[in-house]
Amino acid sequence: MNTEEVVNMKRRFQIVGNSVELNRAIDVAIQVAPTDLAVLVTGESGSGKESFPKIIHAGSIRKSKQYIAVNCGAIPEGTIDSELFGHEKGAFTGAINERKGYFAEANGGTIFLDEVAELPLATQARLLRVLESGEYIKVGSSKVEKTDVRIVAATNVNLAEAIEKGRFREDLYYRLSTIPIKVPPLRERGNDILLLFRKFASDCSVKYHMPQLQLADDAREVLASYYWPGNIRQLKNITEQMSIMVPEPRVVTAQMLKEFLPDNRSRMLPVALGTQHQENSFENEREILYKVLFDMRRDITDLKAQVSRMSKDNHEQASHHDSQPIQILQGHSVTHAEPVAPARQSIADDIQDTEVYVEETLSVDEVEKDLIRRALAKHSGKRKNAAKDLNISERTLYRKIKEYNLE
After folding, report:
1. What is the pLDDT at residue 198?
2. DSSP-derived secondary structure letter, 334
3. What's the CA gap between 212 and 105, in Å, rounded?
């Protein structure tokens, strides 16, 4: 490891920390920079992955060319191909002009694909072609274009699990991860936590013209032992909060610090559980809805069977005692027992109607389609607001609109 180069890169890109894992990751980035190999940067959200593509570009022969960072998770599924590869005029509704994509803009330079696991499978196939041959085709065109770009990708998703679930192409994974770089989470960086706290506290002190925060000994222990699920981003936010809220003499105690730290139950759980947050929440809701509806159907079917048995038993009992002149029902005298059976039959009929109604409404797709239609109508067709109201991403909403032909 070239310690001097590592120190220079940390100083240049304002990377704070001296942990072995961090220094090793930076050293790998420095070594791979002069090559044209694809690099995959992995690590938890907020751990500082965005600095490594910059290190790689700065140390490459492409450093004088364009560097473009693309957040794949922030681009709707319907427009991601156009953003990356460009489109021809008239390729789709709203394509009033020809457009160059990021791969054309970054020709000769470096393109950083953040959250690469969020790419649709069709786009992954097109990206694989770029990696293998440097070729791509604009949306709405049949002409093959060429590009010469260095690709650095990053993700906080467990790609092995994504491949098993069919959400990420295995061949693309091997093409991207020619050189893997793993960025350690904050909780594994030891004293770096205190160094980062001092850095953020100093920045706030300068920015807001106030005395710098200091940590009491017990607060240092709490800070160092906390799980930090949000990593560096969470530490920075909490430091900024305390810089504003903590009064004179500006010394943070353990008790004060705990008031700013959220109740973090994940600290008690295995680290691997953190990947569950990457699951599509909308799909989880569909599964829950399926379960509820099928449980409802089973319960109503059981109820229908029970009422039918009761009706049958009562009818047989009425037939057996039809010679009796008086049947007592709810304290009133009647001269015949026959009305009892029809009444039971009426209940059974009601249950039959209920079952038919449940059968008609068991289509989750229809329920989902109706919810999306209502949300769009409520927000006058504004998809961003409708997606927020439905608690789903714009990309998922766009896909559902196409799937249900609601455009």
Report:
1. 96
2. E
3. 44
Tell me the C-alpha to C-alpha distance, in Å, between residue 233 and each of 11, 47, 237, 247: 19, 7, 6, 23
Contact predicate 45/231, CB 8 Å: yes
Res. 159: pLDDT tops 80: yes
Task: Tell me what percent of the chain is helix, strand and coil, each rounded to the nearest 5.
Answer: 55, 10, 35
Give the separation between CA 13 and CA 5, rounded to whole angstroms: 12
CA distance 274 to 186: 14
- Whose tokens are 């509820």? That residue is 292
Backbone angles phi, psi at 281, to 5 degrees: -65, -30
Predicted TM-score (pTM) of this structure: 0.64
Peptide bond into 249 cis (omega under 30): yes
Q: pLDDT per residue over 303-348, tens digit each?
A: 767 767 776 666 666 555 554 444 433 444 444 444 444 444 444 4
